Amino acid sequence: MNKKVKQILTTNEIIVVYIIIALCILIGIVNPVFLGMSTAITLSRAMLITLIFAICEMVVIISGGIDVSFPAVACIAMYSTIRFVIAFGIESPIFAYGMVALIGLAFGALNAYLIAKIKLPPLIATLGVSSVANGATLAFLGTKEISNIPEKMDALSKVFLISYTNSQGITYQLTALILIPVSMIIVAYYVLKYTMLGRGIYAIGGDKNAARIAGFNVTRIQFIVYMSSGLFAGIGGLTYTILMRQASPQSLMGSEMMVIAAVVVGGTRITGGHGTVIGTILGVLLIAIVQNNLIMLGIPTHFQTFVVGLIIVIGTSITSLRAKKIANSAKV
Amino acid sequence: MEKSKKFFKEADKNTLALFGIALLIFALMGIFAPGSFLGIANLQGMCIQFPEYGILALGMMLAMISGGIDLSLVGIANFSSIIGSIVMIKTGGSGTSILLGIGAALIVGALCGTFNGFLIGYLRIPAMLVTLCGLQLYTGLGLAVTKGPALTGLPESYSLLANGAFFGIPIALLIFIMVFLIVAYILRATVYGQHVLYMGTNDIASKYSGIHNLKITITTYLIGGMLGAVSGILMASHYNSAKADYGSSYTLLTLLIVVLGGTAPEGGKGKVAGVAMAVIVLQLVSSAFNILRVNSFVKTFVWGLLLLAIMIITKVVESKKKE
Known about the structure:
The complex is a heterodimer of chains A (332) and B (323). Chain A is mainly alpha-helical and 332 residues long. Chain A contains 14 helices and 2 strands. Chain A has a two-stranded antiparallel ribbon with strand order 1-2. Chain B is an all-alpha fold and 323 residues long. Chain B has a two-stranded antiparallel ribbon with strand order 1-2. In chain B, helix 10 (191-201) packs across helix 12 (213-239). Classes of the chains: A mainly alpha (332), B mainly alpha (323). The A-B interface holds A 66, 114, 118-121, 123-125, 127-136, 138-139, 143, 257, 260-261, 264, 270-271, 300, 302-310, 312-313, 316-317, 320-321, 324 and B 69, 119, 123-126, 128-130, 132-137, 139-141, 143-144, 146-148, 252, 255, 259, 265-266, 295, 297-305, 307-308, 311-312, 315-316.
């Protein structure tokens, strides 16, 4: 019993929880306003897009790969859809989401083909696809920011689940779009934990050959993983545009680093085979808190990149050290 | 005749193909835009541009040969050039202070590289992750030191390093050739060079054959860091200022160069000559695009396509060979 409690209290997820609590207390002492409803709403809004990408990235990393192309895929899918929708005067958000998902899916399939069929290293394949997608967006679709988004789509950003007004009369609202990552989380949790596909994803991440011998269709699983990653990258891109109420062809570029960091800090091993949905949520939460609240601690903005980098290095070192310790410990 | 046949047989096919492409571009551009492309100004301009990322590519190649990858090179380049510039400005800007600054930059580069190598070799964190974090960390350090804007006020004579010429040959090109020869020597003629190839091929086998993997890893990233610093010194000299986010497109570019140059991403295989050839080809393509006034974003697109195409061709050829 005692051993089990100890085991639970030292899992990766719990360590991240400790760090988050310590950070919250620290920020709360410096700035008591932090501990309130308003922070919860601001944070969930800040986490929304990162969560969509992080869940996909986590699944890809568990399967033993990596995907650095999702920001570029998100941008090209979102930007071409918005331009198409505006050019033809289509108002329906459902059509836009459908189109964005299809474009994302196509790029995901390209990634999957390069990785599963031609057997390129995932990093190089997705880096190449990222460069192609980003270059194509800027060279052929234009570099202009579009702010006249169709009204019906724009209206989506004004649907709120919760509204909260603080004592100074400032209203904080939680957008209904948060339902997208929430439903993704539920599906990912279910698939990873209770389906054969989920087991297969862990299996090919652990050892591809062993998984194949055990009867998993490695190519099929890789196709599913990368295609769903592309699909949700597209959806994430459109959601971001709706939230920001303008489409910019470059807006998401460079976010891959932060997403991978959030996933790894949440205890997913970059070498594959390990990782949980809850850990990823915690990792995203930790990064969001750090990014949004360093100013409250009195750390100037030009230190931010460094501090975030430092937290990621420490976070990944802890997970890797634990993995090393487990690997070195006696096998029963 | 017999001898030249043997030479072609033994020479790397990949390098030869690249050489052919380079000749083709020269010929095409010589026909379409002879005045501007083959002019002295353009040739000199090219020789000033490519050493910056060519040296980074050599660092990336070493990391890849060892079975890892180094995505933090651009971060190291900028951070070390920032520190070097600060030293130069603080010590007055005379000839000695320039040397001091260059020395400081090299030391910083070596330290950053050692830190990478330690995390990769000792803590056994995957190289990709360490250097991805490293990029963030070193760029962040650079930002923290400069507070954002570019550092200016570097001594005038310092800019000669990248922009000056020695008997008509740009000094930057001479530096590139020197670095190229040093790296080639290290890989071909030293014990370390052999060990790093073994380790890249199979790190468990190399460990059991008595090779000190940790030492080799740290040395690899240390050299990489120093090469990053050299490139940073050139960049600072080229723009006559130092900034935390110069050359942010170089990471993808160096990866592309290294893979184009025939280095295997799985490690254990790589040729300095191939990488140098790939650098020249890319610079030619890029210059040709500039002269033909093609939108610069098309370049990103074409580079991505090239990277994928080369990788696919190599893989297909390899699998054919196996059959």
